[in-house]
Amino acid sequence: MKRSFALVWGPLVARLIVGGTLVYSSFHKIVDPGDFTRILLNYHVFPATWLHPLAVIVPWIEAFTGMALITGFGRRGGALLASGLFASFIVILGYNLARGCPTICGCFSTFAENQHLTIDEKFAKMHREIWLVDVPCFALSLWILVAAFVAPQRGSSVSAA
Amino acid sequence: MNLTLLQVAGILGLAAVSGLVANWVHDIRDTGGYRELFVDESRYPNARECPALRNADRTRQLTYGERSPSDPELRNVSPSPGAGATSAISTPAESVDTTRTTPVEIAGDSASESEPKIVDGIEHIGVEAAKRALDDGVLFVDAREAKYYAEGHIPGAYSIPAYGARIEEKIQEISDNWGVSAPVIVYCNESEECEASHIVANQMKLFGFTDLRIYETGFPGWVRAKLPYVVGDEPGTLAEAIVPGTKEGE
Q1: So what's the pLDDT on residue B55?
Q2: DSSP result, A97-157
């Protein structure tokens, strides 16, 4: 029962949570690449020449990674990419917190919706994004990844994960 | 493991193709979401430098606490009746003067005339100087996103969203119509250290514009000063950009 939860049902729920989070967060970035460019710029870690290509492609990486996790097609690759994405968000936001640079995450909302925030509100939100979204999703992604490798690729119950 | 890497490559490939196709669709539909894939470093100066850290004056960081013009509190600020202000100023086409090329001297704020604030080689001006410049017919460039421009902007200001597409074309248009020696004031919101203004002003500087200023308290400061502003998409083109100093009765 415990093994079944750790390797089958737990990862299945985790896939839906992480996949849903990624698909949801990609939506406004796909719709408004200009706003996402501004979000990337406000991280102040990328060279100027990277901003537009990242703004064009990263939201779609999020979307396809999320869909891979939800559908189960390419879940290992999806879990690996999701781990990388959330690790990147943690590193970028953590770096800006460490150097005292107030940053708008833009994870689930546009830059424009957040630009009225005060410095303190921005820092508080950065902490919330890291500890309530990025770290849990990163942990869930690792769980999915490990379960996908540990669980044998046989049997109907395992294939559900 | 090979299968995992293959899946990663597949997802990245699909994402790249989808992103490029979506970008192309943004381009042909002219949605404003189109991103040029290859931009010069100068497009986003100081991209890796946090503006809050760049500015040693901690008090300047308080500008992050200012509210956007879409904030209900700000939007409820009504211009003073004494100034003849209205939130829906018409922009008569007959008052357009697109041939102006003579630079107009922009006086600084009386409080800061002795020591003008210059950041990255561009002078920053306050609301009083901005108001005088508007009366003198100086061209204002609004560097905010189009939707904020539509919610309210300085009368006659031309919209060049700093994070929008093809800003070089719009700057070229100003250069063709007004000349690079024409005085131009760029503004945005005062949050984010007015980074959008810096992006547009820097691009204009690269085009050869010599008389550039940044109005640093931006549109929120304009509204707080109870100065008139315009709601809507007008002027949509540079040719329709009004020159307030040439309006009837002035």
Answers
A1: 58
A2: HHHT------SSS-HHHHTT--HHHHHHHHHHIIIIIIHHHHHHHHHHHHHHHHS-S-SHH
- What homologous superfamily is domain B41-246 in, according to CATH? Rhodanese-like domain (3.40.250.10)
Contacts of A95 in chain B (CB under 8 A): none
Instruction: Quote the tokens at residue B169.
Output: 């074309």
Mutate to test the interface with B, among A52, A73, A117 (most CBs of B within 10 A): A52
Cβ contact B15–A64 (<8 Å): yes
Helix ranges (DSSP H) in B91-194: 127-135, 146-151, 167-178
Question: Which of B4, B190, B206 is most worth mutating to test chain A (most A CB atoms within 10 A of its CB)?
Answer: B4
**Cα angle value B107/B108/B110 (rounded, 5°):** 110
Sorted by where each begins, the domain ranges of chain B are 1-35, 41-246
ipTM, two decimals, is 0.87
What's the start-to-end Cα distance of chain A, in Å?
15
How many angstroms separate the CA atoms of A55 and A77, rounded? 22
- Per-residue pLDDT tens for B198-231? 889 988 988 889 889 999 888 888 998 889 888 8
Q: How far apart are CA B153 and CA B219, in angstroms?
A: 7
Residue A152 in contact with partner chain B when CB distance is under 8 A: no
Which of A37, A44, A65 is nearest residue B50 as measured by Cβ atoms? A44
Stronger pLDDT, B128 or B101, i.e. the higher one: B128
Hey, is the C-beta of A41 within 8 angstroms of any chain B C-beta? Answer: yes
What residues does each domain of chain A span?
Answer: 2-159
